[in-house]
TrEMBL record:
Bilayer topology term: Multi-pass membrane protein
Designated name of the protein: NnrU family protein
The NnrU domain, residue ranges: 8-170
Pfam short name (any one): NnrU
Organism, scientific name: Paracoccus siganidrum
Length: 173
């Protein structure tokens, strides 16, 4: 499969994994068969795996430049990511995670000026914004010391693992 074919297949798998289980009858059957916890754990692992495949497929797609993302755009991402992580960790409910994805996607969209990554991050931004329209903004935030420590650990892990897992350093040059 060539770069664009893999990219489109990864998108189709990712969207299918989110649209099909969201159908009330299918979701009810899965939850009844697996149990709520197992369903959520399986759905989360599948989503992460497909997201990672989509990220890799975007990187392997042919490079088609759309705009020049200057060095300042990496600063934008590095300033936005702590906010995204705090939103995901501190918010009450799933809407915090969806807000975190919107912040992540929006900042990364600006910093990636090629067709495949613009499609990836732009698509993720639309996907997250639709989720926010459906669920609403977080109703509140639970700021506790353990959550702050968790947010810092997640940020440090993402910063240090990004070059190994994604293949690009997130640090401004």
């Amino acid at each position: 499969m060539d770069g664009w074919g893999e990219y489109l297949a990864a998108w189709a798998a990712f969207l299918g994994a989110h649209v099909i289980p969201a159908m009330p009858r299918i979701r009810a059957r899965l939850v009844a068969h697996l149990g709520r916890r197992a369903y959520l754990a399986g759905f989360s692992l599948l989503s992460l795996g497909l997201l990672y495949w989509l990220i890799l497929a975007a990187g392997r797609a042919p490079y088609v430049a759309l705009w020049e993302a200057g060095g300042w755009s990496r600063w934008l991402v590095n300033l936005a990511m702590p906010l995204a992580i705090l939103s995901g960790v501190m918010a009450a409910g799933l809407s915090g995670l969806v807000l975190a994805f919107a912040i992540w996607a929006g900042a990364h969209l600006v910093a990636n000026g090629d067709l495949a990554h613009a499609g990836f991050f732009g698509g993720m931004l639309v996907f997250a914004l639709l989720g926010l329209l459906r669920s609403g903004l977080p109703a509140g935030f639970r700021v506790t010391l353990p959550r702050l420590v968790l947010a810092v650990l997640i940020w440090a892990a993402l910063l240090h693992l990004h070059p190994l897992v994604i293949g690009v350093s997130p640090l401004p040059v």
